[in-house]
Each structure stands twice: as structure tokens, then as C-alpha cells.
């Protein structure tokens, strides 16, 4: 007789954990994010998850294939949080700018998770929705498909690169991070104009920028460049962009 198949929902835990919660993918992802915040990527393990959830560690495999599969779910969760509550305005520049800032902030709310997941492709629901939304904004703005895809990749990869970079900085011990920032004041800001005229002329600006992410500036440069591309395309087509 053929082996009876058990549905995915039937395999999942129905009884509450020791903490009184009923297990779900969301609960596991939220718990994993908490572990990453406190212990870093090295602290994310099946054993630690089991302890934190108050459940047998093997229970994780009812929901995920393993830690790597959970990592993809974490990546998708961060993407979903980026879009939560966002509404398009119809102005492609403003929409992509607000999405970029929201996405970067969502990743930096969980810097250890940003470092772990920014380079991954989840293939899950939130990621697919994000790809569809961003491509739709670009195509509806008038970018041809080839240009839309290239801009999509540059836009997303820029945000993820800054999320990983800034997340790695935030994940450093406080003393190390502050020591790095102090070097801008104690070293670069003290260089004489005779030997380093350009650094000396801009020292205050360099110190100021070291206190925050360069992502907003980089995002505006990318979008302004995209707008210039669109103007050229419209000129070639014999139309004028407002």
C-alpha cells in the first residue's frame, strides 16, 4: 500500500510551546531576528532557536529545511517590512526614493540580519512583489525594458550594498565603532593644508558625513542619473518630460 502523504499543515506543531505560543513561520523568523540582534550570525542555530522558542529543536524542520532556508525567510521578512504601509504617489522619482529609504531603514533595524541576508535571493512572496513593484514603477515612468531592468538592478543592489555595509558597522562593538569614527576627528581633521589641501578644506564636512550613512546621497545621485537618462530617451523619441 502506498505511503499516506501528510500535509504541510498537519506536520506543524499545534500544541503551544513552553512559552505558551503556537509555533508558526512568523514566530520562528521573529525569534531568529531577536537571536541575531543579541548573538550575531554565529548565535543563530537550531539548538538556540529551540531553546528560545521553548520547543524541541527538531521542530524547526517542520517549517524550514534548515538554517539556510530560514535565512531566506528572514531576507523576505525584511523586504516585506520595507513595503508595509507604503503607498505609491505616481511620481516615480519620489516613489523609488521613499522605497529606498524605507528599505535601508528596515534592514538597519536588524543590522546582523542585514549582513547575513542582504546578498541572498529568497524567491519568496515579498521579494517577488518588490521586484514586480519596482519594475512597474520604472516601466510606467517610460523607461524601455532594457533600461528598466538595468536600473532595477542598480537601484536594488545599491540599497542592499549599503544595508550590508552600514549593518556591518552597526554590528561592531560600540567601542570599536566609536574608535573608527573618532579617527576622522583625531586624524583626518588634523591634517595640515600644506600636505593635504583637499582634506583640510573639507575636513568639517568629512567629519559630519562620517556620523551618518552616505546612502541617501548615493540614492539621490542614482535617481537623478536615471532622470537624466529618461530625459535623453524622451528627447530621442521626440517628446518632453515634464
Q: In short, what is this structure?
A:
It is built from eleven helices and no strands. It has 242 residues and is mainly α. Residues 1-8 have low confidence and may be disordered.
Oligomer: single chain
Low-confidence runs of at least 5 consecutive residues: 1-8
| Mean pLDDT metric | 89
Biggest sheet details: none
Radius of gyration: 23 Å
- The chain-level structural class is mainly alpha
Specify the CATH class of the domain at 11-64.
Mainly Alpha
- Please provide the ordered H/E string of secondary-structure elements: HHHHHHHHHHH
CATH superfamily of the domain at 11-64: Homeodomain-like
Helix content: 55-70%
By CATH, the topology of the domain at 11-64 is Arc Repressor Mutant, subunit A
State the separation between the terminal residues, measured CA to CA: 70 Å
CATH architecture of the domain at 11-64: Orthogonal Bundle
Task: Note the main attributes of this structure.
single chain, 242 residues, mainly alpha, Arc Repressor Mutant, subunit A, 11 helices, 0% strand, flat, disordered N terminus
How would you characterize the overall build of this protein?
Keywords: DNA-binding, Transcription, Transcription regulation. One of its GO terms (biological process) is negative regulation of DNA-templated transcription. One of its GO terms (molecular function) is DNA binding. The chain is mainly α and 242 residues long. It has a domain of 54 residues: Arc Repressor Mutant, subunit A (Orthogonal Bundle), CATH 1.10.10.60. The longest helix is centred in the middle third of the chain and has 27 residues.
Amino acid at each position: 500500500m502506498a505511503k499516506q502523504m501528510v500535509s504541510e499543515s498537519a506536520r506543524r506543531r499545534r500544541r503551544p510551546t513552553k512559552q505558551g505560543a503556537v509555533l508558526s513561520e512568523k514566530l520562528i523568523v521573529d525569534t531568529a531576528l531577536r537571536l541575531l540582534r543579541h548573538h550575531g550570525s554565529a548565535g543563530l542555530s537550531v539548538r538556540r532557536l529551540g531553546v528560545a522558542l521553548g520547543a524541541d529543536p527538531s521542530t524547526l524542520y517542520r517549517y524550514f529545511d534548515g538554517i539556510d532556508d530560514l535565512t531566506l525567510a528572514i531576507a523576505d521578512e525584511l523586504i516585506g517590512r520595507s513595503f508595509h504601509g507604503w503607498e505609491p504617489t505616481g511620481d516615480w522619482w519620489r516613489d523609488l526614493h521613499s522605497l529606498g529609504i524605507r528599505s535601508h531603514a528596515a534592514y538597519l533595524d536588524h543590522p546582523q540580519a542585514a549582513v547575513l541576508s542582504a546578498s541572498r535571493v529568497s524567491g519568496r512572496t515579498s521579494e517577488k512583489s518588490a521586484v514586480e513593484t519596482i519594475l512597474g514603477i520604472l516601466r510606467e515612468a517610460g523607461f524601455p525594458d532594457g533600461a528598466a531592468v538595468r536600473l532595477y538592478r542598480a537601484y536594488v543592489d545599491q540599497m542592499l550594498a549599503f544595508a550590508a555595509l552600514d549593518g556591518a558597522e552597526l554590528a561592531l562593538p560600540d567601542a570599536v565603532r566609536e574608535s573608527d569614527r573618532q579617527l576622522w576627528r583625531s586624524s583626518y581633521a588634523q591634517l595640515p593644508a600644506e600636505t593635504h589641501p583637499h582634506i583640510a578644506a573639507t575636513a568639517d564636512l568629512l567629519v559630519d558625513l562620517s556620523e551618518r550613512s552616505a546612502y541617501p546621497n548615493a540614492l539621490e545621485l542614482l535617481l537623478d542619473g536615471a532622470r537624466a537618462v529618461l530625459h535623453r530617451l524622451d528627447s530621442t523619441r521626440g517628446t518632453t518630460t515634464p
